[in-house]
Amino acid sequence: MEQINFGQVAKSYAKAREDIPVSLMDSLYIRGVYFDGRKVADIGCGTGALTRKMAMRKADVIGVDPSKELLKYANELNRSKNYKIPYMQSSSESTGLQDSQYDIVTVMRAWHWFDRDRAIREIKRILKEKGTLIVVDSGFLTGSGVVEETFKVLSKYVSGGLKPAGAKAESKQRINGYPIEWFDEWQNNGFELRDFYRLNYSVPFSKEEWVERIESVSWLAGLDEKVRGNALQDLRDSLSADEPYIIPHECNVCILRLKD
Fold this sequence. Notes:
Blueprint: H1 10-16, H2 23-29, E1 39-43, H3 49-56, E2 60-65, H4 68-81, E3 87-89, E4 102-108, H5 116-126, E5 127-140, H6 145-154, E6 174-175, E7 178-179, H7 180-188, E8 191-205, H8 207-215, H9 218-221, H10 225-238, E9 245-258
Parallel strand pairs: 1-2, 1-4, 2-3, 4-5
Antiparallel strand pairs: 5-9, 6-7, 8-9
Helix pairs in contact: 1-4, 1-8, 6-10, 8-10
């Protein structure tokens, strides 16, 4: 599976990936997941968008990501927003975290990039008995004029077509965006599915905000810098000046718990 270096677009990633629905944390709370005083490891944390939301709810949280460029922005946001969240540069497969110390492990918009067998073993190692794994994915939906025009433009620059990211491209069947084989993998490795649900929401964008959002997706993050710049300028020239763009999104949440 091809790995994408999101560090090449870290600045845009930091600005564009804050689009987590307000309802996410409340939806977890009403399902019995609370963060106050809990030890949490946010793996594949990127620039820390979810990490900060959990810190706001008084979690004892640490963020883990392999990209030093993304973590640089996470730490800058720590300073500008007055957080004291620790971040570690390490991978999902070898976090360097202590055994059996974490009540909750969260993974947002990253599971499809992991070596899943190794990541599951690592998560089981750091979780406490009956610990919780929360796998979240979110993104914009197709169908709106802006999104369809965006796909039309990008398809000229991305060889092989606009495929789903990471391991999603290898799956023939998905449920709410999750490859069906993931559920068997979790179950076979001792995780019980506790809940699985979808949140729908919309995000407003100016034209430039939308272009920054698109720069942070895997299709463009893996391109040569010059090609990426040409694609983004082509997109600017092609999109309507009628702002803001109201883009429908969905957030899918899977709550799993270690079996006895």
